[in-house]
Design a protein that fits this description.
InterPro entries: RINT1_Tip20, Tip20p_domB. The protein is mostly helical. Helices cover about 65% and strands about 0% of the residues. It starts with a helix and ends in a 7-residue tail after the last helix.
């Protein structure tokens, strides 16, 4: 305490402040004001000095009196122990004389009488204790007054304008040290100062804060004045030219000497304040953990003064009643701040004017982070103030969030070395009610767009031209999606769904919170499941009506109806084609979307074994289960039966468990899969495969049904219904047709009863091949061709037993193959090649060898059309055989093979490599898949074969 008292020795009194004097009415000139101020100083200064001297003398007298009184109390306290000992001795002697030490303890009457007859022995002691307390209070009061006086002196020293900045800063440091010493003294001597310590400390804090605040305001005003006089902020070049002023840059303005001096003084003040812990350390370094624009960010004083006029202009335009302050145009305010950042960020770069000023002021390495913080603060405050209003306007809220997300991305592009910074979008997204309002608005908007897509007249139109609407315009224009899918045909609805999903994914990509991204993922899941349900119900209806998916019913129960006409022919294939194109297009789109960075990151975050990821997976599984429950509850009985037949399980069986237990378990088992679109891709892949199988079955069914008359005709001249010719070589020359003149006409190629099948096949393939991609078309074409070729062999050749074809009938059957089936193949191949060249594909839709799937039919034709013999044949027979070999593309060796040779190879020497079945198969270029048993049956169909 003695050290503190020595430190608090009286200091020279400061100069007294001038008294304020109200100005007279009117508007005096500056000269008059200056004269009035000089006169006022001359009139009041002596009086003030006299009053100050009188107050100083009174204070010194009071302090002297207090010191004298303190010395008297100290002397009294020094004599107090001796007085206490004397009083105790006198008290003991008195007790001994009265015999009180031998009195019985229970004699209450004697004690009462003694107390009434003798004075209280502790009266002197109480008086001495009170005197000691008075001395302690006097000492504390003296210390208290000394502290107050010293604090007042230091505060006045800080606030006196006439002193140098260095002396004023030194006084501020002394005042801060005084507060620290006083707190330390109070902590070390609690008994002495326990009553006045809190009040004294608070008074010192108030004096320190007042001194710092006043000095900071004065220095900031000085810098502001210097900047105003230097011309900050500089006017744009076009404005300066219009005013006739000299165009100046920001660096030229900040290079003015008054600006530099005021800047350095303010920097010195901040350094002193930081060391005295009046303000936190500045956060201008990029390595600082405090994000720019946050409340916890500590800016530099000079930056705040520098940006004040810039922010005042922003407030004028975007915080008042100006027409530029519009809630639905947040991009205006953001663009204004972006332009300010672009315009002035060069000042904060190395060797920039602001960078150099701060380096001279002791803050090296100040970068654009300071400017970004100054610009972000008003934007953050403005966004926070608009949250309640935005929650009531989902459309404006979504627009605002999008603008803020774009601004956050742009900001990091403008300042790559920004470091941690407040994201303006988080001001809205981290507020649960605001984010929920935005998410609900996005869900409602997505639902409305989905309904608009599905209810559009051209929703199921294929590309720019479709058989259902050739004149319908292209309605969906998504540049990025069209660039990726150039030349890919699909329905407008599928393209619209992909565009909508991509837009939702794009809006969710900047979100950093996993629960927030899961919310958008749920909207996309709902969107895709709804569209998949629409496709599934369409396929269900088609399968219910189409005869291609039902067995023949007796009694005409499967007769033609108007509804059945909608699933036949090109109308039926168009419906299946649209479902296939839609499902496959969305599946391919999801495959690409799953490889994008945001989807990969989302899948990785969902796969983490963290509590947040676990909750997100549980939330998503709950949404899926709820959706499946709604689908099952809303499904019809027929749909449930079909779904159960497809999946092999029963949905909601009587006495069974939960309907969605199996799907939910499947989802839980695969939750480690990082592909967020895995389930959706599987769903649309199954729909595409289902539509593809439907196309195959429809084309095969209609084509084979049209061959009914063709499969029942006779192919040999000895049939009972035939008119047998009496001309020579009737066996070779007789027609393979029945009694119908059209069927018997050799020039009618292909056979007239085959033309309906050929027409249907050609129509279907020409409708499918130009639209489908080769990767989609080729498997469908091969399946159709293979099935039809097998049906022709089974129904026409194998059915009906042996010995059904003579030479002429075999030749007509070969012509039906080469001029009928292969003619359709060549026509479709030409169309596929043209479509491939138009889209830039190197592979046609039917492959490079479109006749390959017809190999089974070709093998049957080759074996059936073998000549009976090559020797002794007439010229016409030889020419016909040569034409047949030419059409089938047989080699010279194959043209010499006769029916009898083939019979011996198949029946007599089948295992002989030189003359048996292997050699015959190689010579005739027959497929290795053709079994010996089948080859024998084919040869036995010729009437000339006696096996």
């Amino acid at each position: 305490m003695a050290t503190l008292l020595q430190a608090l020795a009286p200091a020279p009194p400061p100069a007294a402040a001038l008294l304020a004097h109200p100005l007279l009415s009117g508007a005096p000139s500056s000269a008059e004001l200056h004269a009035a101020i000089v006169e006022l100083e001359q009139a009041t200064l002596p009086a003030n000095r006299a009053a100050l001297d009188a107050a100083r003398r009174a204070l010194l007298a009071e302090l002297a009196a207090q010191q004298e009184q303190s010395r008297a109390h100290s002397a009294a306290l020094a004599e107090l122990p001796a007085q206490l000992e004397a009083a105790e001795d006198a008290l003991l002697e008195l007790c001994t004389e009265l015999g009180l030490d031998d009195a019985p303890a229970g004699d209450a009457d004697a004690e009462a009488g003694l107390s009434r007859s003798t004075p209280a022995p502790d009266a002197p002691l109480q008086q001495l204790l009170r005197q000691r307390d008075d001395v302690a209070e006097a000492s504390a009061a003296r210390l208290y007054l000394t502290l107050l006086a010293r604090a007042d002196e230091l505060r006045d020293a800080v606030l006196v304008p006439g002193k140098s900045t260095k002396a004023r800063l030194e006084a501020l440091r002394t005042l801060c040290a005084l507060l620290a010493d006083a707190r330390a003294a109070c902590a070390a001597d609690e008994e002495e100062l326990e009553t006045i310590a809190p009040a004294a400390a608070q008074y010192l804090v108030d004096q320190r804060d007042a001194a710092f605040s006043g000095l900071r305001t004065e220095l900031e005003d000085g810098l502001k004045t210097a900047l105003d006089q230097a011309g900050w902020p500089p006017a744009p070049a076009e404005v300066a030219e219009a005013r006739g002023e000299v165009t100046r840059t920001g660096a030229e303005v900040l290079a003015a000497p008054p600006v530099r001096e005021a800047w350095l003084r303010l920097c010195r003040l901040q350094r002193v304040a930081v060391r005295a812990r009046l303000v936190p350390p500045p956060s201008y370094e990029a390595s600082s953990e405090e994000p720019a624009g946050a409340v916890s960010y500590a800016p530099l004083f000079a930056t705040q003064v520098l940006c004040a006029p810039l922010l005042a202009r922003f407030a004028y335009h975007f915080d008042g009643n100006k027409s530029t302050n519009r809630l639905d145009k947040p991009q205006w305010a953001l663009a204004h701040m972006s332009s300010l950042l672009r315009l002035h960020s060069a000042l904060f770069t190395p060797r920039g004017a602001v960078f150099e000023l701060f380096s001279a002021g002791g803050y090296a390495g100040v970068g654009p982070r300071e400017l970004v913080n100054a610009l972000l603060v008003p934007l953050r405050v403005k966004t926070q103030a608009a949250r309640q209003v935005l929650q009531a306007s989902p459309a404006i809220l979504a627009h605002t969030v999008g603008a803020l997300l774009a601004f956050d991305d742009e900001l990091r592009g403008l300042v790559p070395s920004l470091g941690p910074a407040e994201r303006l979008a988080d001001t809205l997204l981290n507020d649960a009610p605001t984010f929920d309002a935005w998410l609900e608005g996005e869900r409602s908007e997505a639902t409305e767009q989905l309904e608009e897509i599905l209810s559009s007249p051209d929703a199921w139109a294929i590309g720019p031209a479709d058989t259902d609407g050739d004149d319908e315009p292209q309605t969906w224009e998504a540049a990025a999606l069209q660039a990726r899918t150039a030349g890919v045909q699909t329905t407008h609805s599928a393209r619209g769904i992909c565009t909508l999903q991509a837009a939702l994914a794009e809006r969710a990509a900047p979100l950093r919170s996993l629960p927030q991204r899961i919310g958008f993922l749920a909207i996309q899941d709902e969107l895709l499941r709804t569209y998949a349900g629409r496709l599934s119900r369409s396929l269900d209806a088609f399968e219910s009506l189409s005869s291609a998916f039902a067995r023949a019913l007796p009694g005409g129960m499967g007769s033609d109806t108007g509804e059945a006409d909608m699933v036949r022919g090109l109308r039926g294939s168009s419906r299946l084609l649209k479902a296939l194109l839609s499902a496959s297009f969305i599946e391919a789109h999801l495959e690409r979307a799953g490889t994008e960075g945001s989807a990969v990151q989302l899948g990785a975050d969902l796969s983490l074994q963290t509590p947040e990821a676990q909750r997100a997976r549980e939330t998503r599984n709950a949404w899926r289960s709820e959706r499946e429950d709604r689908e099952v509850d809303g499904a019809s009985l027929g749909e449930l039966v079909r779904r159960g037949m497809r999946t092999g399980v029963s949905l909601r069986p009587l006495g069974g468990g939960h309907a969605t237990a199996a799907p939910a378990a499947k989802t839980a088992a695969s939750e480690e899969d990082a592909d967020v679109w895995r389930e959706a891709k599987v769903r649309f892949g199954e729909l595409a495969a289902r539509a593809s199988r439907g196309l195959e079955r429809l084309v095969i069914s209609e084509t084979t049904e049209a061959m009914r008359d063709y499969s029942m005709r006779h192919w040999d001249a000895s049939a009972p219904s035939r008119q047998v010719s009496v001309e020579p070589d009737a066996t070779e020359d007789s027609s393979g047709a029945d009694g119908s003149p059209d069927e018997d006409d050799p020039s009618d190629v292909p056979t007239p009863s085959l033309i309906p099948s050929l027409s249907l096949l050609s129509s279907h393939l020409l409708h499918l091949v130009p639209v489908l991609q080769p990767v989609q078309c080729l498997p469908i074409y091969r399946a159709i061709a293979t099935a039809i070729a097998g049906a022709v062999v089974e129904r026409v050749v194998m059915s009906g037993g042996a010995h059904r074809f003579d030479a002429q009938g075999a030749r007509r059957f070969e012509q039906d193959y080469t001029s009928g089936w292969l003619a359709v193949v060549r026509e479709v191949s030409a169309s596929a090649t043209q479509a491939a060249s138009a889209t830039g594909s190197r592979l046609p839709g039917v492959g490079r060898r479109p006749e390959a799937p017809w190999q089974r039919l070709r093998d049957a034709v080759v074996l059936l059309s073998l000549p009976t013999s090559t020797a002794g044949a007439t010229a016409s027979h030889a020419a016909a055989a040569a034409a047949t070999a030419e059409r089938l593309g047989l080699s010279e060796a194959a043209r010499g093979v006769t029916l009898s040779q083939a019979t011996r190879a198949l029946f007599d020497e089948p295992d002989d490599d030189a003359r048996g079945w292997p050699a015959l198969r190689a010579t005739l270029d027959v497929s290795e898949a053709l079994e010996l048993r089948v080859a024998r049956e084919l040869v036995r169909r010729r009437v000339e074969c006696f096996r």
